Amino acid sequence: MAATGRKHLVRDFNHFITCYLCRGYLIKPTTVTECLHTFCKSCIVQHFEESNDCPKCGIQVHETNPLEMLRLDNTLEEIIFKLVPGLREREEQQELEFWRKNQPKENGQAENLRCQRFGLSDVGGDGGDGGGDDGDGGGNDDYHRSDPQIAICLDCLRNTGQSGESTVTDLMKRFIRCSSRVTVGTIKKFLSLKLKLPSSYELDVLCNGEIMGRDHTLEFIYMTRWRLHGENTYPMVLEYRPRIDFG
Fold first, then answer.
1. Pair 90, 153 in one domain
2. Are residues 74 and 154 in the same domain?
3. RING-type domain spans which residues (predicted)?
4. Considering only CA atoms, which of 41, 42, 66 is closest in space to residue 53?
5. For the packed helices 74-83 and 87-102, what is the interaxial angle rounded to 10 degrees?
6. How many domains does the chain have?
7. What is the pLDDT of residues 182-217, one digit of tens each?
8. 3-state DSSP call for residue 31?
């Protein structure tokens, strides 16, 4: 008789797909680049609020800002979702419920905002600040409508005395709504287009005076920089600082 292969159960892989901190399945698995240990994003972010060391091996991740040494592992996330039936759906539902509870509508305004390029849209009114997308009824406009949404305010922060800064104008509309998964890099592209910045300019995006990394998502910034610093105002305020890139 031909030998039949042993069927593997999900529990056979639990050692590889569970979080050392919460002992549950890895949700938004995030790897520490210094030691390559992986945890749930929310678990490791919360841990780094109190310590700069890896919770599993004890290595110092960074002297001052260990959050800069974290990287999302999207491949592992997809593997876990395929291994564990129903996990993706449960997590998406919980995430939607969280954002519904924590993002009230401003002044009861109807959410009739048109999604624009990069999943961003200006808040309040039609047309205006560079809204040059073709048509309002096309399905291709709604790139991120199914994502949890977040409203942010973009303020220009100028360093007085820096050469050439007087040529940079403020946004006509500072309030925008976008997917919570939008990254700082995308915000920079959006600002560069709206402000029509020359290629010699670079932008820093800051929250509470701290420069945000290009790969940081708005959800990550909201959870680790805005909400945890006692900010209860809404929308979240991000500042952008134009500078000339001499590199």
1. no
2. no
3. 19-57
4. 66
5. 120
6. 2
7. 889 889 888 888 888 887 788 888 888 888 888 888
8. strand
Report the amino acid identity of residue 122.
Answer: D
To the question of pTM greater than 0.70 for the whole model, the response is: no
- Residue matched to tokens 């639990």: 14
CB count within 10 Å of CB 91 equals 15
Which of these, 10, 41, 11, 37, lies nearest to 26 by C-alpha position?
41
CATH classification at residue 81? 3.30.40.10
Cα–Cα distance between 226 and 165 in angstroms, integer?
A: 27
* CB of 183 closer than 8 Å to CB of 147: no
Q: Tell me if 200 is assigned to some domain.
A: yes
Answer yes or no: is pLDDT of 117 > 50. Answer: no
Do 202 and 195 meet the contact criterion of CB atoms below 8 Å apart?
A: no
Among 99, 116, 139, the domain boundary falls at 99
Tokens of 21: 């901190």
The answer to the question of residue 115 being in a domain is: no
134 is a domain residue: no
Q: Which are the contacts of 56, defined by CB distance < 8 A and separation ≥ 6?
A: 20, 35, 37, 39
159 burial level (CB within 10 Å; 0-12, 13-18, 19+):
exposed
Query: Is 89 part of a structural domain of the chain?
Result: yes
61 close to 48: Cβ distance less than 8 angstroms: yes
Per-residue CA distances from 153 to 32, 91, 175, 188 (Å): 31, 28, 5, 14
Residue-number span of the structural domain to which 52 is assigned? 10-99
Angle, CA of 217, 223 and 48, to the nearest 5°: 100
> Which amino acid, one-letter code, is at 110?
A
